[in-house]
């Protein structure tokens, strides 16, 4: 929903569901401190160079839609947001492996205890092996989000090299939900679907289309076709 008109979020959400979206992907970003400020240690490092929405917006949107709210936490301390997003009615809570190596088990337990589905995301520069531990054991995450752009903004160019990560994941975990996010649209969906992605985040390619429903249908058809040939 990062590409939507935030001033009309409820109607934009309803429009996307009407056009055939299964989930609404909600990008929660914590802002960024310029390098010079960090040099003087006078500011706390955040995760991405953009500031978007938080729990109050999720709570308001939940009053207008029953859709699955797939929250992507691009924040330095995801644990700080579990309670408030659970109360707000978030459906999925996907945190970044880069900021949760030491406490992901606690995170997953707490996310589940609040009735949300835990997922883990990784940036383009993070090796896929870093998420393997989070897929093993008694309390694994239930989805992996492979970023196909640097997090922070919509409308960026798809990074095809990230498909190697998707292929590796699909071979190792045949039934896992694998989400791809960034630059997905009619010209890039076939590569993602063929690699094994089955959850597709698409912002600008849908919101910017004259016929968003057609784009959503095309994305779904590509994934369904790829799954049949797997
Ligand atoms: O998390 C992010 C960006 O940080 C993504 O969800 C983008 O918002 C996807 O937008 P498009 O690339 O599809 O326009």
Alpha-beta content class:
alpha/beta
In DSSP terms (H or I, runs of 4 or more residues), the helix count works out at 9
Mean pLDDT: 94
- Give the overall form: globular
Which ions, cofactors or small ligands are bound in this entry? 5-O-phosphono-D-xylulose
Helix content: 25-40%
Please give the oligomerization state of what you see: single chain
Task: Please write the string of helix (H) and strand (E) elements.
Answer: HEHHEHEHEEHEHEHH
Strand order of the largest sheet: 1-2-3-4-5-6-7
What is the radius of gyration computed over CA atoms, rounded to a whole number of angstroms?
Answer: 17 Å
Largest sheet: 7 strands, parallel
According to DSSP, the number of beta strands is 7
**Can you tell me the residue ranges where pLDDT is under 50 for at least 5 consecutive residues?**
none
N→C terminal distance: 30 Å
Strand content: 15-25%
């Amino acid at each position: 929903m990062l590409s939507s008109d935030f001033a009309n979020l409820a109607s934009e959400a309803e429009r996307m569901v009407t056009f055939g979206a299964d989930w609404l992907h909600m990008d929660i970003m914590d802002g960024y401190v310029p390098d010079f400020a960090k040099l003087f240690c006078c500011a706390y490092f955040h995760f991405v160079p953009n500031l978007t929405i938080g729990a109050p917006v999720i709570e308001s949107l939940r009053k207008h839609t029953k859709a699955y709210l797939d929250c992507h936490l691009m924040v330095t301390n995801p644990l700080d947001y579990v309670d408030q997003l659970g109360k707000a009615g978030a459906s999925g809570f996907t945190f970044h492996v880069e900021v949760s190596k030491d406490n992901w088990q606690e995170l997953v337990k707490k996310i589940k205890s609040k009735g949300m589905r835990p997922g883990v995301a990784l940036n383009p520069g993070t090796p896929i092996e870093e998420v393997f531990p989070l897929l093993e054991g008694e309390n694994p995450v239930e989805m992996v989000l492979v970023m196909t752009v640097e997090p922070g903004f919509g409308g960026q160019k798809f990074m095809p090299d990230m498909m190697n990560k998707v292929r590796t994941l699909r071979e190792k975990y045949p039934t896992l939900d694998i989400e791809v996010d960034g630059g997905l649209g009619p010209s890039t969906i076939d590569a993602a679907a063929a690699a094994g992605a089955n959850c597709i985040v698409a912002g600008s390619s849908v919101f910017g289309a004259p016929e968003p429903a057609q784009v959503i249908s095309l994305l779904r058809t590509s994934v369904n076709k790829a799954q049949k040939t797997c």
